[in-house]
Design goal:
This protein is α/β, with parallel strands linked by helices and 436 residues long. The chain has 13 helices and 17 strands. Helix 1 crosses helix 11 and helix 4 packs parallel to helix 9. The longest helix is centred in the first third of the chain and has 21 residues.
Length: 436
């Protein structure tokens, strides 16, 4: 049969990787598919930059309509990023009967429901493996290989920039600012790294994973997001002493009538596999009722790893397209009429263990005063570190609590913060001593 024709929107770094994959592995793709794939058109505003790949004359154009309205093109890959014009292009391509592959996690997290509904009405597929975890096949695992399981939790290290920074701070004892600069110099962090270091990128991904795992819509505005910019070398050292590592952890948990969906720095035991995920790598840990815990690990970003995920989606769609079948799995993992809207548990209701570092004046009775305030709010102390201070100076008091309600912790810290003995704001880091 003739080749399935593919159009590409966006010829940046990932788009270049997709072209490289097409050109280098076209033969093996055809052997796996039983038919060819043809990259028919690429639309990008930049016609002059040398991407290091050769294209046939007429393939590259500035006219997006040559892709999304071209009757010969069967599958459209969107790699523009952002909300607009990517959303409008995708919706028009769907209206024109095109199947969609995208790596756009922000768009799918915020506007995914609208896109999925449009695709379902039109009877086309939307796949977005590359939106979460780069080259890690986590979405296909949830939707297909592990789809007989009921998932109770999904945890992930989902941002290579943050994981690189925290790894370097842990290994070298460095502070945040110089390591961020190093990450920028190496190309691991953007010139404006806000979306990465403040956890927004990770939150987009856990919103998608929670929706896929738990069969619910997820209102992104309700996802709790806290980044790593306030993590210090001091807290990393104390975490090490207590047997933990600090990671920017994405947490999704299913409580039946409600879910948790949150992103924040988290201490996890050094003995856990997730704690060993270092550098720019990503990992996702699923807990299924039949499969138990399973960890998927690999390159979370980059030209080639992300292109690999994009092309996996293209090939999956082309198999169904050639056979005349609908997509093997629903776009969001559950049949559209079976997706619920479960509320996201408020952070004030979350129960967690907590690392608390108080900076106090050095005088007798300080610990007793702090412990008294914590006890007033039903917070018990599990362990403590109190280094010797210098006479007349400030000293740190580090406490690890037993499980406590976030609202109680917030009330206790507000009261403690008003005490004369406290000389600096208290540091709080949530702890996951056992992964469900």
């Amino acid at each position: 049969m003739s080749a399935v024709k593919v159009g590409l929107l966006g010829f940046g770094t990932i788009g270049t990787g997709v072209v490289r994959n097409f050109q280098r592995n076209s033969t093996i793709m055809e052997k796996r598919l039983g038919h060819g794939l043809e990259l028919a058109k690429i639309a990008d505003l930049d016609m002059t930059t040398d991407r290091g790949v050769q294209l046939e004359p007429g393939v590259l154009t500035t006219d997006v309509e040559a892709v999304i309205s071209n009757p010969e093109i069967d599958i459209v890959i969107e790699l523009i990023g952002g909300y607009e014009p990517a959303k409008s292009f995708i919706l028009k391509a769907i209206a024109n009967g095109k199947h969609i592959v995208t790596a756009n996690k922000a768009l799918m997290a915020i506007h995914g429901q609208e896109i999925v509904e449009a695709a379902n009405r039109q009877g086309v597929s939307v796949m977005f493996e590359a939106a979460v975890g780069g080259g890690i096949p986590i979405i296909s695992a949830i939707k297909e290989n592990l789809c007989s399981n009921q998932f109770s939790s999904v945890l992930g290290i989902l941002n290579g920039t943050c994981n690189f920074i925290l790894t370097k701070m842990t290994e070298e004892g460095s502070d945040f600012a110089p390591v961020l600069q190093e990450a920028q110099d190496l190309g691991y962090a953007e010139a404006d790294p806000t979306f990465d270091i403040e956890g927004v990128d990770t939150a987009h991904k856990i919103a998608l994973l929670s929706a896929l795992c738990f069969g619910t819509t997820v209102d992104f505005e309700q996802v709790y997001v806290e980044g790593i910019s306030k993590i210090t070398a001091v807290d990393i050292q104390f975490a090490e002493q207590m047997g933990y590592k600090i990671k920017l952890l994405a947490i999704g948990k299913n409580h039946g009538e409600q879910i948790e969906a949150r992103v924040h720095p988290t201490m996890i035991p050094k003995s856990y596999q997730l704690a060993e995920v270092s550098g720019v790598f990503n990992a996702v840990r699923l807990m299924g009722d039949f499969v138990g815990p399973i960890l998927l690990y690999g390159s979370g970003a980059g030209m080639d790893a992300t292109a690999s995920a994009v092309m996996g989606d293209v090939m999956a769609i082309s198999r169904d397209y050639v056979s005349g079948a609908r997509s093997r799995a629903p776009i969001m993992g559950y049949c559209a009429d079976q997706i619920n809207t479960l509320p996201i548990k408020a952070m004030s209701e979350i129960v967690s263990h907590y690392y608390l570092r108080f900076t106090t004046i050095d005088q007798p009775g300080v610990l007793a005063e702090i412990a008294g305030c914590l006890g007033k709010y039903d917070i018990s102390i599990q362990s403590m570190i109190q280094p010797e201070g210098q006479e007349g100076g400030s000293i740190p008091i580090v406490l690890m609590t037993h499980a406590a309600k976030e609202a109680n912790i917030s009330s206790a810290l507000k009261e403690i913060g008003q005490l004369d003995i406290i000389s600096q704001p208290t540091c709080l880091i949530r702890v996951e001593p056992q992964l469900d």
